[in-house]
Amino acid sequence: MTWLLGYLADEKRAGSAGAGEILRAAKADGFNERLLQRARKRARVSTHRTATGWTWTLDIAPRRQGDHPTRT
């Protein structure tokens, strides 16, 4: 989860990146896709389908106690 948040928070990505790009970078750093998918859900990273594929975006809204992540 820390890796994913750091990757998306990098200033050149500004909180958003293509799913394929993220998966390739994670694999290069030794993370498998299943682990990354679980991290995405725990970190409340939302997914959006675009014309060019899937994009993962940081959910910057603060989490309050008792909030439950929405399914994406």
What this model shows, in words?
- The protein has helices at residues 2-9, 19-28, 33-42, and strands at residues 16-18, 45-50, 53-58.
- With 72 residues, it is of the alpha+beta class.
- Strands 1-3-2 form a three-stranded antiparallel β-sheet.
- A hairpin with a 2-residue loop joins strand 2 (45-50) and strand 3 (53-58).
- The radius of gyration is 12 Å and the shape is globular.
- It has three helices and three strands, in the order H-E-H-H-E-E.
Features:
3 helices; 39% helix; alpha+beta; 72 residues; 3-stranded antiparallel sheet; globular
Helix/strand class: alpha+beta
> Which blocks of ≥5 consecutive residues have pLDDT under 50?
61-65
Helix content: 25-40%
- Largest sheet, order of strands side by side? 1-3-2
Q: What secondary-structure arrangement, pairings included, does this model have?
A:
Blueprint: H1 2-9, E1 16-18, H2 19-28, H3 33-42, E2 45-50, E3 53-58
Antiparallel strand pairs: 1-3, 2-3
Would you kindly provide a brief summary of this structure?
With 72 residues, the chain is α+β, with helices and mostly antiparallel strands. The chain is built from three helices and three strands, in the order αβααββ. Helices cover 39% and strands 21% of the residues.
